[in-house]
Specification:
Elements (H helix, E strand, L loop, with lengths): L16 E9 L5 E10 L4 E5 L6 H8 L7 E6 L13 E4 L11 H5 L1 H5 L4 H14 L15 H13 L5 E5 L7 H17 L3 E6 L2 H7 L2 E5 L6 E6 L14 H17 L11
Parallel strand pairs: 3-7, 3-8, 5-6, 6-7
Antiparallel strand pairs: 1-2, 1-4, 8-9
Helix pairs in contact: 4-5
Length: 274
């Protein structure tokens, strides 16, 4: 049974996250994460960035309660409860939409509520509200094959939001989209977060996306992943795409790229600021 969370109090915009000395070693001895420590304030937007293989997705799986850590611990909220599979406090959107092909868009979105045995009438009402929030109100009865890639990503985001979780984990949900569509999704995600503050942790390979969305950027070392540097993003909100090309945006981008270049091999030249 999922853990419920009372969102009626606007003074609780999200869950605090405490990651203490986290380590993950897979069977066979591959060490994905080592001594990863990070505190995330409730209602904040954190971006985690680094190249493939540094443990970003593994970290999100631990935070979602889908993978037990080998060492250390994760605590959510003031009560310090550990995450667990089916944790209603946590919403998760993957890089691929992972929609069930034989279900309608609406049924895909409300699937978490169905598994939690929420009444059909309530599921339908909440599902249609979630679809409206992501701009898919006219596609409720369509099957995934009838949706474009961008629409499928919107449906996956609506599904992650359907339980109104105070912690939202996003594992590169827009990486398969073209650059212009992705920028539009970033703006949409910012709007959704500003309209309904919650704690968001976003995994991304895009420095620009991290700056556009986050309050703070966590750069990671190569595997086993650790925190390399924390970079504050002190740009005003709501953020326009053009803001990233202005002086302060460029300074933050250079700092992030330097932080990545310091802990990754020289062949990753795209990280290095010119």
């Amino acid at each position: 049974m999922a853990t419920t969370f009372d969102r009626s109090d606007p003074a609780t915009p999200g869950l605090a996250v405490r990651i203490e000395g986290l380590g993950v070693t897979f069977p066979g001895g591959t060490q994905a994460i080592s001594d990863f420590t990070l505190g995330v304030e409730p209602g904040s937007f954190t971006a985690i960035i680094g190249p493939n293989g540094c443990g970003k997705s593994t970290l999100l799986r631990v935070l979602a309660g889908l993978l037990p850590p080998t060492k250390g611990r994760v605590r959510l909220g003031d009560a310090g409860m550990e995450p667990h599979a089916g944790d209603g406090r946590v919403g998760l959107a993957f890089q691929q939409p992972r929609l069930v092909p034989w279900l309608s868009t609406l049924d895909n979105v409300v699937l978490p509520l169905s598994l939690d045995r929420v009444a059909a009438a309530e599921r339908g009402a909440r599902g249609r509200e979630a679809l409206e929030r992501v701009g898919l109100s006219g596609s409720a009865e369509r099957r995934p094959r009838e949706l474009s890639g961008g629409m499928q990503q919107r449906a996956a985001l609506a599904r992650a939001l359907i339980s109104d979780p105070p912690l939202l984990l996003l594992d590169e949900p827009f990486s398969a989209l073209d650059a212009l569509t992705r920028e539009g999704f970033d703006l949409e995600l910012q709007r959704l977060w500003l309209d309904r503050p919650r704690t968001v942790i976003l995994v991304t390979h895009s420095v620009g996306e991290a700056i556009a969305l986050a309050d703070r950027i966590v750069t990671m070392t190569a595997r086993p992943g650790r925190v390399a540097r924390l970079v504050a993003v002190d740009l005003p909100r709501p953020r326009r795409i053009e803001l990233l090309g202005e002086r302060r945006g460029a300074e933050i981008e250079a700092e992030v790229r330097r932080a990545l270049a310091e802990v990754h091999p020289p062949e990753l030249s795209p990280w290095v600021a010119s």
